[in-house]
Structure formats: C-alpha cells, structure tokens
Design goal:
The chain crosses the membrane at residues 23-44, 50-70. The structure is a single chain. This protein is α/β, with parallel strands linked by helices. The protein folds into 2 domains: 8-84; 100-243, no CATH class. It contains 5 helices and 12 strands. The strands form 3 sheets. The chain has a 7-stranded mixed sheet with strand order 1-2-3-4-9-12-11, with helices on both faces. Helix 1 runs antiparallel to helix 2 (49-99). The radius of gyration is 27 Å and the shape is elongated. The protein starts with a strand and ends in a 27-residue tail after the last helix.
C-alpha cells in the first residue's frame, strides 16, 4: 500500500499549540495572583495613605488579570482536549482504511485552492476513489436537514456538505471521475446510510462502504501515480499558502465607503 500524509496531523498540531497556550496562560495567572497577594499585603492599614491606595489599585488590576488568564487558560485546555479527540478519531479511521488493503491512501491532502483539505483520500484495491470526512462521536448517527447528530450532540458545521465538497474537488483533480463521498464517525453504532448523496458509516463498516466506490483507475500503478501527483500538488499548495500568509478580508458592512473628494459629485457643478 502506498500511503502519504499523517492522519490527524493538523488537529494534533492544534492540540499541542492550544495546550502550550493554556499552560503559558496558567503560569501568567499564577504570577498575577502572586502579584495581587503582594499588593494586598502592601495595602495593609499601616503606613502612608498614598502608597496604600496605589497598592490596592494594583492588587485589583492584578486580580482581574489573574481571573482573565484563568478563563483563557481553561478555554485553551478544553479546546486542546477536543482537538486531541479529533486526532484520535482520524487515527482510528486510518486503521480501518489499512484493514481494507487499499492501493493508495493520503491524509490531510489539500484539494482546494483556499486550503480545502480532505481528511482521507482512498484509492481502493478495486480501483475506486473515495473522499472521507472524519467526525468524532459515539452512538447513533442521524441527519436532520443540514444537521448531523451523534446521539444527542449536534456535529459542528455540515459534515455531509464537507464530504461532498471534498469528493467534488477530488473528482476535478482526477479528470471528472466518479468519486465516493463518505462521512466516517468511528463510534457510530447504527448501520450505514446515505444522506444528500453522501454515505455515512462507522469505522467497522468502512471496508464494505469503500467496496461500493465505482472503478476509476485501470491499474494499481495508475492509482499510485495519481496519489503521488496529488501529494506533490498538496505540498506545493501548502508551501505557497505559507509563503503568502493568510489573507483576511473585512466584511462588506465593516468596510468604509469611499467618499468623493470635496467639491465633486455625480452632477456637474456650476461655478
């Protein structure tokens, strides 16, 4: 099997960055708490009034900073925990893909021009192609309109549309081939089903689902060559995005309208 990329690599990086941020904010909270305690000692009812007032003000400011840092640290650590769970789900799906013995598989491949990456691209041993969107959860999966639920929890965004977009972008890269769109929830307990043209399944049913992908390649060598090309293009797209840096455009209602210069308008003014 030809395999490229790292399953859960992006979310693993997110988890480590958020965990580091949470630890640094926790350290800042401890330092600010110690500073607030010291200022309270200095603000004891002994000594000149002006230094006591100044110490009391500094104690209040340090205490407020400590509370803010504590909240931000807790938020960052919770986000790190969620990202770590997401990375674990992607690794579970990678294990399920390996059990199907595909010709080629790629993880975190950038397919869109604006960083639209696909969690997993699989070229099956039956020479089919599939784009897999991985979601986290355990329980019965249901779909109601654009919302997908795992048990009572509603998954963020629109997973079916994300999988369909990934399949559409992959099909474009493969010259208009028919690509199977899959949403895989490793802990899904019910049977696979189809919603909006996308197959939803658990990790235990992924092999049976991938077998239904229509043939795209004439041989295993052709599939491996296509995966190599996709990986090269993905690496080039990531390198280009890193060199340019993120581009953020202000919302339309936040951008100021350009005023015409003084003395000019849409009509011709007389002298």
């Amino acid at each position: 099997m030809y395999e490229v990329g790292r399953a859960g690599g992006y979310v693993s990086g997110q988890a480590w960055r958020r965990r580091l941020r949470g630890v640094l904010l926790a350290g800042a909270a401890v330092a600010l708490g110690a500073a607030a305690a010291g200022c309270l000692v200095l603000a004891a009812p002994a000594g000149p009034p002006v230094p006591r007032v100044l110490a009391a003000v500094l104690a209040v400011a340090a205490g407020a900073g400590c509370a803010f840092a504590c909240r931000r640290s807790a938020r960052a650590l919770r986000a790190a925990g969620r990202a770590a769970i997401g990375a674990r789900s992607e690794r579970e799906v990678r294990a399920a893909i390996r059990r199907t013995d595909p010709v080629a598989a790629g993880y975190g491949i950038v397919l869109g021009g604006r960083g639209g990456d696909c969690d997993a691209v699989v070229f099956t041993r039956w020479h089919g192609a599939a784009a897999i969107e991985v979601k986290t959860g355990h329980g019965k999966v249901t779909v109601d309109g654009d919302a997908m639920r795992v048990g009572r929890r509603v998954l963020h965004g629109n997973p079916a549309r994300q999988a369909a977009d990934g399949a559409r972008l992959l099909a474009r890269r493969l010259g208009g081939a028919d690509v199977l769109a899959v949403v895989c929830v490793p802990g899904m307990t019910n049977r696979p089903f189809t919603a909006s043209g996308v197959t939803v399944c658990g990790a235990q049913d992924l092999g049976r689902v991938l077998k239904a992908a229509p043939p795209v390649f004439g041989s295993a060598d052709q599939a491996r060559a296509a995966m190599e090309r996709l990986w090269r293009e993905s690496a080039a797209a990531e390198a280009g995005a890193g060199a340019r840096g993120p581009r953020v455009r202000a919302p339309a209602d936040a951008r100021r309208r350009r005023r015409p210069p003084a003395g000019r308008s849409g009509r011709r003014q007389g002298r």
